[in-house]
Design goal:
The chain contains eight helices and no strands. With 202 residues, the protein is mostly helical. The longest helix is centred in the middle third of the chain and has 16 residues. The chain is globular and about 40 Å long.
Length: 202
């Protein structure tokens, strides 16, 4: 099997379904973990094609390894630990139409980053159990595990400027403090793709 079974997080969950802003940002792979959760949400949308598994696609999952995910970067700027996890787990499913296999691969790559550094273990939900798509288990939210869902929508809010406050409230996710990106600041990270010289090898 291509997918690992991540170890359980030894740290208890906070009372709300997400660790603090400081705890999450202390993780050196904060951006990459958030991006992989964002891609997992895309993989849970039945009308969303799985083109993002391709290294040459717009908003490719491979762009998660850039310092500012979805904003193209040079090979030298990429997160090395992220690339290692991507090659191991996402490489085998590049171009796949097997939605469940892609979802599992994304979560395995995310788990590898969470488990790679103690500050990430303390800042993010563990990789197991594997999350399921909310629609597959009768839930309105995109991802069934509350912690992963809250982490996903929080990263989208803080980094991409996306999100609906009502969705946060309905799912017991704290609404992030402070202003969120808007206009050109947010749009610069959307609909980009890697140039030929920026595409990592498998």
């Amino acid at each position: 099997s291509q997918n690992i079974q991540p170890q359980a997080n030894p740290n208890p969950r906070p009372s709300q379904n997400i660790h603090s802003h400081a705890a999450r940002h202390a993780c050196p792979h904060y951006q990459q973990i958030g991006c992989l959760s964002d891609v997992l949400e895309k993989a849970c949308m039945p009308d969303e094609a799985l083109d993002f598994t391709s290294r040459t696609a717009h908003e490719s999952v491979w762009m998660c390894c850039c310092p500012r995910p979805y904003e193209a970067c040079s090979l030298g700027e990429r997160d090395a630990a992220c690339d290692t996890a991507m090659r191991k787990f996402l490489g085998p499913v590049e171009g796949s139409n097997d939605r469940e296999r892609v979802q599992a691969a994304i979560q395995s790559a995310r788990a590898a980053l969470v488990e790679s550094v103690e500050t990430c273990v303390r800042g993010f939900a563990p990789g197991s159990p594997l999350a399921r798509c909310g629609a597959d288990v009768g839930l309105a939210r995109s991802i069934d595990r509350p912690a992963l869902f809250c982490e996903t929508v929080t990263w989208q809010w803080e980094e991409l400027g996306d999100g609906d406050p009502a969705e946060f409230v309905a799912n017991k996710c704290p609404i992030p403090a402070g202003d969120r990106p808007a206009g050109a600041t947010a749009d610069v990270r959307k609909q980009q793709r890697l140039a030929v010289a920026q595409i990592p090898e498998l």
